Structure prediction request, 192 residues.
Amino acid sequence: MKHFAKLIRVITIAPFAATILNLSVYFSFPGSFESVAQLIYILLFTAILPVMAYPIQKVFHIIKIEDQRNASRVLAIILSVISYSAGVVFCLLAKVSEIQQIIYFTYFFSGLAMLFLNLIFRVKASGHLCGITGPVTVMIWFLGIQYLPLILLSFLVGWSSIKLKRHELRELIIGFFIPVIAMLISIFFVGI
Prediction:
């Protein structure tokens, strides 16, 4: 079962979920993207740049703490917030569609919440669960109820986190609700 739990964690990394979300919106929600360039930018800001934290930390050891897994996690949070912030700036300057704005702001608010909770308040909220639940929530909200079964991915990620002793239940609950709340704030902020 431990191998299955590890496999779940590998195939459900947040950048992969962001890629699936953005491609699903691009192909399923007409008018959500004006060009392929907008798709490339949203993939860059929500998936490509955030995942670069792991190889960057491995090669350059930017975060100087003993536990390299935790160092990679810290750098991933920081790089994600920087990338999501740049994405928000891009979306405002490029005047992208409302659904893109909501995606950008959901990632931005989720990233800020993870930064403050994990690095400032020392609450180890699950970024992995946040990174799965966010895209699933946005897909259900905008693409329809047929995506509701994808919420099972959140429960699989939660199970794997407990099985591998990466998080406690409280940390998983926080990680689950961060993107849900962030999306609702984003919808209000964008004004739809």
Notes: The first helix runs from residue 2 to 11.
